[in-house]
Amino acid sequence: MREAEVRRESGRDCGAMDIITTQGLTKAYGATRVVDGLDLRVPQGSVFGFLGPNGSGKSTTMKMLLSLVRPTNGSIEVLGTPMGRGNGDGDRGTRRRVLGRIGSLIEAPSVYPHLTGNENMRIQQMILGLTEAQVRRALEIVRLDTAGQKLVKQYSLGMKQRLGIAMAIAHQPELLILDEPTNGLDPAGIEEIRELLLELAGEGVTIMVSSHQLAEIERMIDTLAVIDHGRLMFQGTKAELFQQATPDLLITTDAGVVRRRDVPADATPYVVTELVRAGARIHEVRREQQTLEDIFIELTGRGGAL
Ligand SMILES: Nc1ncnc2c1ncn2[C@@H]1O[C@H](COP(=O)(O)OP(=O)(O)OP(=O)(O)O)[C@@H](O)[C@H]1O
């Protein structure tokens, strides 16, 4: 197994540094705290899912990480560097240097629809001073090298997202921040993004990816944070999330299957005895792991699309 895969299997690199840390990160608009005291830790080398229902504060958090929105309170450290909030030359210079090592795609990619993919990349090349090799490599990674001659207005949504990602990765950033890159994509488009992100992660890029649809990004992430109303509800590996939840107790009786949630392991005999006393004939007693979706619904109290 390759090193990156071993790291992904274990979910978290032992002793790996956190590439993003925030402490008490808060954004208030008027009296409303849309991000409320977030302590985030994004491990280096992870594909980190940032999950929460619509309006829970994901975009605002990502914008604060990218210095596009100024926090009301709290601190941010990215790539080992504290991101000062001041407007002095020191803070501005630090932010510029750190931001140069990050690639991002926030909301829809800003591309010119009446130009081809290649022409859009040329504009990015001029802005960022990219080499020919960097442009070619980025288009190859997102598999748009052959579609580069096509007008972007003729691209599918998935192709536009991939072009946006090509623009974000062309300068070979160490950290990639993607806001809802799978939003609106069909399963094939989501699979393309998944393969692309795993390939980038294999090259050592840390990826933070947000979504309000757990099912869309579950297979591409290893660690995750769940927020709701701007507050952190969970942070850790997928395995740790599963461990948090007690598997459902399933009892098959003559009348069918009874499912009981949140029954501790040592309470199983009592539940079975109670059913037998009530006259039930028990055929099978087993435990079933809740799905990640179920665990999320419990965390956020909201079903379906988070
Ligand atoms: N500039 C602003 N002024 C006032 N309220 C804002 C502003 N920007 C965002 N909000 C509010 O902050 C809350 C969080 O919004 P945000 O876009 O961060 O959530 P989100 O989790 O990214 O949701 P979505 O998945 O819908 O994009 C929302 O209630 C939104 O209306």
TrEMBL record:
InterPro entries: AAA+_ATPase, ABC_transporter-like_ATP-bd, ABC_transporter-like_CS, P-loop_NTPase. The keyword Chaperone does not apply. This is ABC-2 type transport system ATP-binding protein. GO terms for molecular function: ATP binding; ATP hydrolysis activity. The keyword ATP-binding applies. Belongs to the ABC transporter superfamily. It comes from the Bacteria. Residues 20-254 form the ABC transporter domain. Keywords: ATP-binding, Nucleotide-binding, Transport.
